[in-house]
Prior knowledge:
Number of strands of chain A: 12
Shape of chain A: globular
Radius of gyration of chain A: 13 Å
Distance between the termini of chain A: 41 Å
Helix content of chain A: under 10%
Largest sheet of chain B: 7 strands, mixed
Number of helices of chain A: 0
Low-confidence stretches of chain A: none
Strand content of chain A: over 45%
Order of helices and strands of chain B: EEEEEEEEEEE
Low-confidence stretches of chain B: none
Largest sheet of chain A: 6 strands, mixed
Mean pLDDT of chain A: 92
Mean pLDDT of chain B: 93
Number of strands of chain B: 11
Number of helices of chain B: 0
Distance between the termini of chain B: 36 Å
Oligomer: heterodimer
Largest interface: A-B, 25 and 29 residues
Helix content of chain B: under 10%
Amino acid sequence: AQSVTQPDIHITVSEGASLELRCNYSYGATPYLFWYVQSPGQGLQLLLKYFSGDTLVQGIKGFEAEFKRSQSSFNLRKPSVHWSDAAEYFCAVGNNFNKFYFGSGTKLNVKP
Amino acid sequence: DTGVSQDPRHKITKRGQNVTFRCDPISEHNRLYWYRQTLGQGPEFLTYFQNEAQLEKSRLLSDRFSAERPKGSFSTLEIQRTEQGDSAMYLCASSFDGEETQYFGPGTRLLVL
């Protein structure tokens, strides 16, 4: 069965510190992987995506993610967090242009 | 084009009433998706359309839910005889056939009293 696990429900980091959000997936076929960000009361904004090729992908707002097939992971990273990064982050997996499966999200708080 | 739009953004209704939401996808996107997001959870797939054809429906979509996309452009999601458990954010997304990325609208937040 297809599923996405985001083990961390809440994460708090200090502004300027590095960030890593974890995502593990279970998918029978070659997955397409996505990270979205959601601000309170808003829809989802695409941060980055992985389909194939280079396993390190760059996204918007200085985010990057690394696909590790052996670990079934697609962790999101940022070297230096800004206060405006506080939001909820969702990892998703999909294929064949059909439905996405989302994780339950990680809420990021940024301390001044 | 300003992206996927949804209307209304917020809806408060009483239990037992019917509600209808509208989604306008990005122009020329022929795929349209509906998701439901409850508090503290990620979005869950409800249904999707390719042009006007509804190709898949989730088991979450009970008989009280119906979605249409009559001309292959905008879509409506209707909930009949609403229940308190229907309270959630309803998200619409669209994509272009051959492109895997789904672009999401701002959502419609439903509160059933």
